[in-house]
Amino acid sequence: MHKHMFDPAIRATPRLVGQEQRVPTADGALRRSINLDHAASTPPLVAVREAVDRFVPWYSSIHRGAGYRSQVASRAYEGARAAVADFVDADDDQVVVLVRNTTEALNVLARALPPGLRVLCSSMEHHANLLPWRAHRLEMLPFPDDPAALLETAAATLAGPHPFDLLVVTAASNVTGEVWPIEQLAELAHAHGARIVVDGAQLAPHRPVRMREWGIDFLALSGHKLYAPYGAGALIARRDAIADGVPLLQGGGAVQRVTLDDVVWSDLPDRYEAGSPNVIGAVALGVACDTLAAFGMEELAAHERPLVQRLRAGLRTVPGVQLLDAWQDESIDRLGVCTFTVAGQDHRLVAAALSAEHAIAVRSGAFCAHPLVAHLLGLAPELPSAQVPPDRPTGAVRVSLGLGVDEQQIDAFLAAVGSLAAAGPRLAYAPDAVTRQLVPRDDARDWPELGIRLSGARRGSGAPCL
Ligand code: PMP
């Protein structure tokens, strides 16, 4: 395929909905919001929203509908499946199962595979790629200090006396942004007769994913992290492995025949798509895949890398800020996902003040990867939370980049972190009754008037649309 160098004059970065959105800060000002929480979820691409708007008048139930619109919608749904397959370079012997998100994809897979598999799993996983595997015979890899140690331990463990069926890893950490050596891990797994399951939730929005070339057997991803937050995600799986599996979701659409005491499940992929599918979500996901592929994931990565360096270098210069990296080597490829603590400051308060005082959106906590975050914070990963000493932080702040983030936004973020690290928040904070997030104690801000119910807001009391 012909490749361009990243050059905004040749190809503009795909635009996001809401990029100009202004939000109120606690001082009463309206400021353009800086979204640095893309690892949690992304806004839609403008192209995705426009495609959804074009499709909605044609929306209809799919597959079993006789109407013309149902025929169109069925084709759009199957077109989305093909777009996902192309985006991740799936093999012909792999099938795309459309699901809600990465969590569902991995649960569907863990259930579909024969029970009692021997599974070797990394300790740095998101809970979504950890908990479903506990239904099998699970063994955990130790926390690796660098990719070489990871490969070494994985090789030694896979070569042990009891063969493993599966190696389960992330493609990139949602806490540290470190990119994993997937191709080598796949080679190792295969050399020892195992298959590899890869959590692609974080990698897919930032880097090309090449299932065929890298030898990935199973992959999970989420549309809402891939600029298509309409509720669809995907499992891409080897057909032979799940062709006869038990579906996690059981019901209409997944069956060929049902009697009062028996069922014959459908062929792939319907077997794993019981219930009326999320056609609009699938269309959105397919369009996001096509739009990002047309722009070029290599270009996108090339655009992001200097921003990641600027962010990390800047954070390092802030007194009191400690980056939480699992791997120290600066030459390792990292996504725009970076987690840190601020000495003497509660992570929740830092995130709250960045929002209320600076209009900067980040996330704080343990990012659904409790064992990893405990490890990075120097807490024993198996320590029950009740026994964590009260003076030790139990979470951190995560900043994550995506399309539309520029140098000015990173510099504004670094300045805000600098002032918070030096002087702390200006305001006093307390938990919000609805979200339980910290918000300013005397918060006079109105909620926007969106014509929808906002929990906890008085009806008609909203601010005009911002
Ligand atoms: N894996 C990783 C690496 C993630 O970052 C996330 C989302 N934080 C998930 C899995 C779960 O994704 P979802 O919530 O879309 O199911």
Describe the structure.
There is one protein chain. 31% of the residues lie in helices and 16% in strands. With 466 residues, the protein is α/β, with parallel strands linked by helices. The strands form 6 sheets. It has a 7-stranded mixed beta sheet with strand order 4-10-9-8-7-5-6, sandwiched between helices. A 4-stranded antiparallel beta sheet has the order 13-14-17-16, covered by helices on one side. A two-stranded antiparallel sheet has the order 1-2. The longest helix is centred in the first third of the chain and has 20 residues, at 68-87. The protein is globular. Mean pLDDT is 94; it is low at 1-9. 4'-deoxy-4'-aminopyridoxal-5'-phosphate (PMP) binds at residues 101-103, 126, 128-129, 170, 174, 199, 201-202, 222, 224, 368.
Report the radius of gyration as a whole number of Å.
Answer: 23 Å
Q: Which whole number gives the mean pLDDT?
A: 94
Strand content: 15-25%
Overall, the morphology is: globular
Main beta sheet strand tally, sense and closure: 7 strands, mixed
Major β-sheet strand ordering: 4-10-9-8-7-5-6
- Which class best fits the helix and strand makeup? alpha/beta
Output the number of helix runs. 12
Low-confidence stretches: 1-9
DSSP helix fraction:
25-40%
Distance between the termini: 42 Å
Total number of beta strands: 19
Hetero groups? 4'-deoxy-4'-aminopyridoxal-5'-phosphate
